[in-house]
Amino acid sequence: VTKDEARVRHLQRKLSRKHGPDKRTKTTPSNRWIRANNQVRKYRNTMANVRRDLAAKTAHGLAKNYETVVIEDLNVQAMMTRGGAHKRGLNRAIAQASFADLRRRITYKTRWNGGTTIVADRWFPSSKTCSECGEVKSKLSLSEREYICHR
């Protein structure tokens, strides 16, 4: 759990203890609830801005330093399904990474700098292919984290 997530949880706990709006009874929120809600919204907005800034700077660095950028097309929706509570942190990290936004930024920034962006197919064996000679290993077990070419 990062410091930012802990801070949001703290602010939301404070918010939950205040008298908020209720559509059923048509009660108006208290001023303290409004103040606490604004704190939560402001902090969440700050976190989103930090993530957006990091994506912009990363895309800028890639587009500036490399003429050709290859992006792997991932099935993000399938990565986030199934797994239950033990996968909650991973799902949150995948959602916050906003891969589609990063891909969009890299694509237009490489075009601005005169480069190209190549989108690798979802089924392309990138982990099994040697970057030196291009040899593709037929079987790569999950325990093998690094592919070592024997040529």
Helical amount: 40-55%
Instruction: Report mean pLDDT, rounded to a whole number.
Output: 90
Total number of distinct structural domains: 2
Question: Kindly, what is the distance between the CA atoms of the first and last residues, rounded to a whole number of angstroms?
Answer: 43 Å
Largest sheet: 2 strands, parallel
Proportion of β residues?
5-15%
Instruction: Please work out how many helical segments DSSP would assign.
Output: 5
Tally the beta strands. Answer: 2
Gyration radius from CA atoms, angstroms: 22 Å
Class of secondary structure makeup: mainly alpha
Low-pLDDT regions? none
**What string gives the helices and strands in order?**
HHEHHHE
Order of strands, main sheet, comes to 1-2
The best one-word shape is elongated
Description of the structure:
With 151 residues, the protein is mostly helical. 51% of the residues lie in helices and 7% in strands. The chain is built from five helices and two strands. Strands 1-2 form a two-stranded parallel ribbon. The longest helix has 35 residues. The two termini are 43 Å apart. The mean pLDDT is 90.
